[in-house]
């Protein structure tokens, strides 16, 4: 795996998505625009996206670490919601998070892992390194 040209950009975008996920999880319940019954898809989709995103930045050997870190994040956010007045700990949200992580792991392992390298080749096609 070649080193990325703009790893800080990919990381900043990824951590921006983590921040949005945390804010969405910790906003008071009445301020979260959700369609009733679809929130589990939001949970699964968010964690799938995060797993795939970070798998584009790191080598395959790190995928289990990424998955574990995302699972810990999901658990921590659910516990934080349990401490709030307008939110609550929801085991099914946690399960949806884990399903998203697992699906993202499989996608990353089989199809899209290292996608940042491909994106950089397309973005920087014909651009030469200064080194």
Any overview of this molecule?
The protein has 131 residues and is mainly alpha-helical. The chain has one domain. It is 69% helix and 0% strand. The chain has five helices and no strands. It has helices at 7-26, 39-57, 63-82, 91-112, 115-123. Helix 1 (7-26) packs antiparallel against helix 2 (39-57). It is elongated and about 55 Å long.
Short description:
By secondary structure, this protein is mostly helical. Helices cover 69% and strands 0% of the residues.
Helix and strand arrangement:
Elements: H1 7-26, H2 39-57, H3 63-82, H4 91-112, H5 115-123
Helix pairs in contact: 1-2, 2-3, 2-4, 3-4
Which key terms come to mind for this protein?
mainly alpha; 69% helix; single chain; 0% strand
């Amino acid at each position: 795996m070649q080193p990325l040209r703009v790893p800080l950009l990919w990381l900043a975008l990824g951590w921006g998505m983590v921040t949005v996920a945390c804010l969405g999880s910790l906003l008071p319940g009445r301020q979260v625009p959700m369609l009733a019954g679809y929130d589990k898809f939001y949970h699964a989709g968010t964690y799938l996206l995060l797993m795939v995103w970070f798998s584009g930045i790191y080598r395959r050997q790190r995928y289990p670490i990424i998955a574990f870190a995302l699972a810990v994040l999901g658990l921590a956010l659910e516990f934080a919601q349990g401490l709030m007045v307008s939110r609550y700990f929801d085991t099914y949200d946690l399960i949806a998070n884990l399903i998203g992580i697992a699906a993202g792991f499989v996608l990353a392992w089989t199809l899209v892992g290292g996608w940042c390298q491909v994106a950089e080749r397309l973005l920087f096609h014909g651009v030469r390194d200064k080194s």
